[in-house]
Amino acid sequence: MGRLDDKVAIVTGGASGIGRAACELFAQEGAAVVVADLDAERAEQVAAGIRKEGGRALAQGVDIAEEAAIQAMVEACVAEFGGLHVLFNNAADTRIETLSRDGSIENMDIEVWNHALAVDLRGPMLCAKHAIPHMARAGIGSIINTSSNQSLAADLSQSAYGVAKAGVNALTLFIATQCGHQGIRCNTLSPGMILTPAVKRACPQEIQDEVRSHSPVDRLGEPEDLARAALFLASDESGYVSGQTISVDGGQLAHLPHFAYMRRTSSTVTLQEER
Ligand SMILES: NC(=O)c1ccc[n+]([C@@H]2O[C@H](COP(=O)([O-])OP(=O)(O)OC[C@H]3O[C@@H](n4cnc5c(N)ncnc54)[C@H](O)[C@@H]3O)[C@@H](O)[C@H]2O)c1
Question: Known catalytic residues?
Fold first, then answer.
């Protein structure tokens, strides 16, 4: 018995990183999976790999900035697999060309701002909009949005991305509140630094090491860490979990700022003698 037997799932951004790991894990657990991605060729490679292992998968090219393409993606899913029960809203524009232009608020280029909101926030909203009627018809559904720890704490750059992701956290609350009576749950996964192709491309080793020094779980994340959390939220095991933003970050946001220094120097907080 698989944990997602009889479920049909769409995973956006399914051709790479976290999305790819989720597609493969969902399929192993019995789901029929739509591997949806801007990169249709790589989506087909992932879907073909799943089918080769005996799973059920359909590749679908989609740009989540385009409502018509999202509608076509949902229709293709329902036509192929007869319904839709799980939407993993995982795609975002993580390209280095995009993120490197997304700096401080003071220097914000309006095109960069609008693009981040159109893809990273409006995209998941539109995917949910078109998925909800099919989930409501089935009387069961799980929408898993993906934000980022940059939505929960600020940074010197990537302001548009972080604000869009903070909007995703709020989107989750609205969907969970409005759709619970239809049997639909909605939650957000907020990744810390996960070693996906996007991060390996964009993040120099010294920054990876620095981030790791702030992680109580002494490593960076792997795509499978997110895929397993998404599997829990997709499955009926999480049937009473809705409206939550769950950080999957090894505890990076759990501690006070002096944590890394204290760990590095093996210091403990002691009362200083009065002088
Ligand atoms: N990797 C991390 O450290 C990290 C940290 C925080 C949040 N996240 C979030 O996790 C999610 C997955 O990130 P990843 O690291 O696996 O990235 P990735 O670059 O490995 O994969 C992203 C996928 O999304 C696709 N995509 C991009 N724009 C799209 C669009 N407009 N329409 C459809 N597909 C599109 C890309 O083609 C790619 O296959 C993203 O939402 C990202 O913001 C990742």
Answer: 161
